[in-house]
Specification:
CATH architecture: 3-Layer(aba) Sandwich
Structural class: alpha/beta
Number of strands: 7
CATH superfamily: NAD(P)-binding Rossmann-like Domain
Number of domains: 1
Oligomer: single chain
CATH topology: Rossmann fold
CATH class: Alpha Beta
Strand order of the largest sheet: 3-2-1-4-5-6-7
Bound molecules: NADPH dihydro-nicotinamide-adenine-dinucleotide phosphate, 2-hydroxyethylsulfonic acid
Largest sheet: 7 strands, parallel
Radius of gyration: 18 Å
Number of helices: 9
Strand content: 5-15%
């Protein structure tokens, strides 16, 4: 079993949902946390809650993962005591819109691709060389059931999550021969701010997504992340696919009122 006391865990998209839940889970295990997101005031709220719960050291980093230069400079500028990242949780991500592809908004596509694919790559490129140099590390990328089964209106989001799967697989191959581990955590529907963001703030439409079914909670997913990260050093959990009991895949849901 790996333990996390004194380990440095870097979580992107830690201001909300799954990222914030991962922060709580690793904090409970005594990890030092480097938490990144664009909404720094929300990160400070998460930080305050963690500190009230007795968390170890925490640094909140204002970061837009889509901004390649910002990713490079923010990580290079970290104080020496925070440079040695042991665990990277590439969680920052979003969906925008649920339009048919031929009617889709190109700005929505660009935002998803820039965040979920290019952002993940920029952060990975900035962090992993240090892991290789130090001879230790674990990258956990947050994928989705959407990366495995496409759904109508979701082609571009699903493609970004399929890309996450392929990038995780390729990184695992490229790191073969090192002790660095790579895991893709692929959850089904979880109630977070995800649908609110997808529908550009339309709360009513977002709430309908989870109507009549029990979704995963962010804590369920954080548990899977922690479990994968805590396996013995010679065990690499390549993938975890998890859904709530009311979901079989991207297309097949059980709703109590249907
Ligand atoms: P939330 O909207 O609650 O959280 C998304 C997080 O990503 C926020 O902290 C947000 O922070 C951050 N983020 C978004 N864009 C950027 C950016 N450009 N730079 C830095 N941070 C960014 O949604 P979830 O917690 O649900 O989503 C987390 C991950 O889980 C995503 O990758 C999502 O695709 C994936 N996922 C979600 C599922 C679900 O049903 N909820 C299921 C499967 C996977 P801020 O806005 O402050 O920058
Ligand atoms: C998030 C799950 O099904 O809403 O990746 O796309 S879904």
């Amino acid at each position: 079993m790996q333990t996390f006391q004194g380990k440095t865990v870097f979580i992107t998209g830690a201001s909300s949902g799954i990222g914030a839940a991962c922060a709580h889970r690793f904090a409970d295990e005594g990890a030092r946390l480097l938490l990144a997101a664009r909404r720094v005031e929300r990160l400070h709220d998460v930080q305050a809650q963690l500190q009230a719960g007795g968390a170890a050291e925490i640094v909140a980093l204002a970061l837009d993962v889509c901004n390649r230069r910002q990713v490079e400079s923010a990580l290079a500028a970290l104080p020496a005591a925070w440079q040695d990242i042991d665990i990277l949780v590439n969680n920052a991500g979003l969906s925008r819109g649920l339009d048919k592809l031929h009617e889709g908004k190109i700005d929505d596509w660009e935002e998803m691709i820039d965040t979920n694919v290019k952002g993940l790559l920029y952060v990975t490129r900035a962090v992993v060389p240090g892991m290789v140099q130090r001879g230790r590390g674990h990258i956990l990328n947050i994928g989705s059931t959407a990366g495995r089964v496409t759904y109508p209106g979701g082609a571009v989001y699903c493609a970004t999550k399929a890309a996450e799967n392929r990038i995780s697989e390729g990184l695992r191959m490229d790191l073969l021969g090192t002790p660095i581990r790579v895991t893709s955590i692929d959850p089904g529907m979880a109630e977070t701010e995800f649908s609110r963001v997808r529908f550009h703030g339309d709360e009513e439409r977002a709430a309908q997504v989870y109507q009549g079914m029990t979704p995963l909670t962010p804590a369920d997913i954080a548990d899977a992340v922690l479990w994968a990260a805590s396996r013995p050093a010679h065990v690499n959990i390549a993938e975890i696919l998890l859904t709530s009991i009311d979901q079989a895949n991207s297309l097949l849901l059980h709703r109590k009122n249907s």
